[in-house]
User: Fold this.
Amino acid sequence: MIKQTITFIALFIGLNTIAQIKFEKGYIINNNGEKIDCLIKNEDWLHNPLTFLYKKDNNSKEIIGNLNSIKEFSVNGYSKYKRFKVNIDKSKTNINQLSRKRTYDFVMETLFLKVLIEGKANLYVYDEGDIIKYFYKKENASIHQLEYKEYLNSKNYLAKNKNYLTQLRIDVSCDNVNYKNVIYKKNSLVNYFLTYNNCNGVNNLTKDYTKSVNKNKFNINIKLGVGQSSTTFTNDLFGYSDIESSGINFRAGVEGEYILPFNKNKWSIFVEPTYQTYKSEIEGNQSGEISYSSIELPFGIKYYMFLNDSSKLFISGAYVLDFTMNSEIDFKNIGDLDIETTTSYLIGFGYNYNDKYTLEARFNSGRDLTQNYTYWQTNYTSFSIVLGYNIF
Assistant:
C-alpha cells in the first residue's frame, strides 16, 4: 500500500498543469530597446531563469524569451530581470566542494540577473542553487560582482576572502553607512544598499524589488481526525505470529505551516503536534487489550496543486516523532508490555478550500510499539481522515 501511495503522489507532482502558475501582466525589452507590455508566465523563479514564456495577450501564442532576444523582463509586482554580460566567479560554499585557492576564478557569461534594488547604486543577484553571487552597478558605471569566496587554507581550515567589503568601502559608501558589518547575505546587502541610496538623497527614487506581492505566510490550523488503526504482533522466541488488533483512533492537533517564498506558494513546511488515542481488543493465538495514547510530532513538507483561485489539492509527507502517555499492551496469558515507540512516516493527500478549510486522508506506517523488548516486534499502521480549520 505504501508503494502504491508513493506512486500516486509522484504522479500528482508531475502534473504541472495543476498549479497556480499563470500568465500575468508585465513587460519585455527586446534587443532594439523597445518596451512591450505583455503577459509573462510567472513561475516565481527560485533560481535565475535562462528562458521564460510570454505572449502579447490571452489570445496570442506563447513565445520563448531567452538571453539572445530579451534585454529585460518583469512581472508586475513580483520580479524584474536584466540581461548582463558579466565576469562571475562561480565558487561554491558547499564544504565538500570548496576550492583551495584564495583568488577568484572569473569567467565571462551572459546572464539574467534578478534586480533587488535600483537607485544611485543598484544591487542584483544570481542564484544557481549552490552558487549565489551578488552584483552592483552605479549609475553609468560597469557592473561588478561583489567578491566573496569561501575556501580551504593551507591548514585545511575554512577561510573567507571578503573583498566585497573593500568594494563597498571604495565604491558604495558615505559617512552614515557602516560597511564593516555587512555580511554576504541578501537581507544584509539589501539593507545596506537602501541605506546608501537614502544617504545620497535618492530614497524617493529607490525601488526595492524584494517587497513583492508574493509574501511569506504562516498559518495556524486546528486539526481533528478519526481513522482506523491496526497492529500486528510477533515474538520469534515463543513462535507467536498470528496476533493482531484493529480499532478506531481519534486525534486532535494544531498545525503550524510556513509557506515558502518561491514557486507561487506551491511548497510549505509544517509541524503538527497532535494528541492521538487508540484502544482495541487483541485477537489471535494470544488475546488481550492494547491501550495506546501519545503526542505525535510530525515534521514535514506539502506540495500544493491549484485548481482555481479558491481551491487546491495538496500532498504531504512527514517524519513523525512519537511520545507515549500511559500506554500498554495487556496480554491475558503473558502479562503487560509497556509501549515505547519508534519514529514513523506519514503521507497524505488532501483538499484546501479558500485557505480556510482542509480535508486530508493520511496513511501512517512503520512504527514499532515494543522497541524496548528484544523478542517482540510490532507494526502499527493507521489511516485517518483529518479536518482542518485555519485560525490565523
